[in-house]
């Protein structure tokens, strides 16, 4: 199987002791490419993923301000992002969105910073990677008002109704380890109804490891487990899921021109 991990935090300090081994294990498992998410510790550092993308041709990067860090964003942050967004290894703006579960930044700051980044992504002609937690209605509202390009709902964890809303807006759904959790029946229903050309798989490593690694530190090699489960849910061969998710990644992120 040749897979892409569409969302991993390779810069995370949990990988400091053995980052290169983690990357090598992913490649051995068939994970040929990885999209490293660049939100890191938040502004002023925007290059957490770019540093890794510069070291490996098969690692790509995003830049963005996570909703957790919205309160740290300044006009300088957006100016720096605007300049970095033209880098060929920066495939998307993300992860951006709203997180009303933790509320690490005030909600009005989260919304302002989300909208500013939607506008920036539109100007740069780059797709977006959405993080949304307990904020589905507001996320949809802002996307409908300020976004008309392509993108990914990362770690999609809604049910069939939310899947249809995201698909109607043109989004890809990226499935992570949660798909393998015993209680995720509604999510598996959503994974069943999504059209094949909107599917992606991810780890969100080091978080949310799939069964049977649940509870351990997650790493990109484990995306194989999620791809296998997605295949089983849809009644197709794992190799088929690998093929379509890779093609979707290439179409949306490598050959993107939605403008
Ligand atoms: Zn996230
Ligand atoms: Zn993430």
Structure report:
By secondary structure, the chain is an alpha/beta fold. 40% of the residues lie in helices and 17% in strands. It has nine helices and eight strands. It has an eight-stranded parallel beta sheet with strand order 1-2-3-4-5-6-7-8. β7, α7 (185-193) and β8 (199-201) form a beta-alpha-beta unit. The structure holds zinc ion (2 copies). One zinc ion is lined by residues 95, 131, 154-155.
Task: Identify the notable features of this structure and list them briefly.
eight-stranded parallel β-sheet; 9 helices; 8 strands; globular; binds zinc ion
**Oligomeric state, counting identical vs distinct chains:** single chain
> In which order are the strands of the major sheet placed?
1-2-3-4-5-6-7-8
The helix tally amounts to 9
* Topology order in helix (H) and strand (E) letters: EHEHEHEHEHEHEHEHH
**Could you tell me how far the N terminus lies from the C terminus, measured between alpha carbons in angstroms?**
33 Å
**Measured on Cα atoms, how large is the radius of gyration?**
17 Å
Q: What spatial form do the alpha-carbon principal axes imply?
A: globular
Strand content: 15-25%
Fraction of residues in helix: 40-55%
Low-pLDDT stretches: none
* Bound ligands: zinc ion
Characterize the biggest β-sheet.
8 strands, parallel
Structural class: alpha/beta
What's the total count of β strands?
A: 8
Task: Please tell me the overall pLDDT.
Answer: 97
